[in-house]
Amino acid sequence: MQESNFTAVTEFFLLGFQGSQGFRISLFCLFLVISCGTICGNLLIITLVSTSKNLHTPMYFFISQLSISDILIITDIVPYLLHVLMNNGGSISLIECITQFYFLCASESSECFLLTMMSYDRYVAICNPLRYSTIMTNRHCVILSITCWLFGFSFLLIFLIKIAKLNFCGANTIDHLFCDIVPLLELACSDVFIIHLEIYLVSILNVIIPSTIIVISYVYIVLAVLKIPSSTGRQKAFSTCSSHLIVVSLYFWTIFSVYVVPTKSQTLTMSKILSLLYTVFTPLINPIIYSLRNTDIRKAVQETLGMKVDSYECR
What we know:
Helix content is 76%, strand content 3%. The chain has 315 residues and is mainly alpha-helical. Strands 2-1-3 form a three-stranded mixed beta sheet. Helix 1 packs parallel to helix 9 (268-292).
């Protein structure tokens, strides 16, 4: 009877970053440049891995899959974020809000699993180098990749159905940059206790377990590297893992900060900034890290550019 007195909410209003028009235009330009750079950088990596024979290895295959995930995240978040910035806020329907949240979380979950598979690849390469080619076959890599995508997009379906059945009433303003689970549940007038339990379950499956596997993998990697007698060999072994470690540290730190162990003292502005780190900046940083710190990718870029220059000169 009490719920029937409320007006059902079917549309939300995202506030985004509130401020002067000049401030919002500056952010608009910044995020537009970042999104274009992110898409171009990740497409470049996907193209290089697909066309360069030197990059037809399991590690680069997983890097290309990671680039696909980054493109999905940036295209899911940034277009509507730009709309919100230009209009000092923007309306979004309940279906659109839930859809945006689903594709964001599904892409994030897939990325967590892909990063875990990359740590497994490095573990096999360093701890079992003689069996690497027989374990990490092309067929095995494709199966692992498909499994990551299926897990990422399937785990959240039941969770999403529960959210879609919630009743929203009263206030419909979301003081955030996009439709995220925490501000969305704050507007629900239904009981969300089960939803919070499912959030912890999803966090364990998609974040805690993958990060634990990554830590265990690198413990074995470090122990194996320390057994290498020459310092040159140790340095070479560590260098193959450095890019992955940087990406993992950045990504999981922000995910833990936002979803797993958010602090009560965390302000709305800080929450927005942390959300930007893993939705906007991390997809940009990933191809930069893998290209600048990886000689094979830099060499592939040089060879590709050299071939284009040679073909142009021949004309």
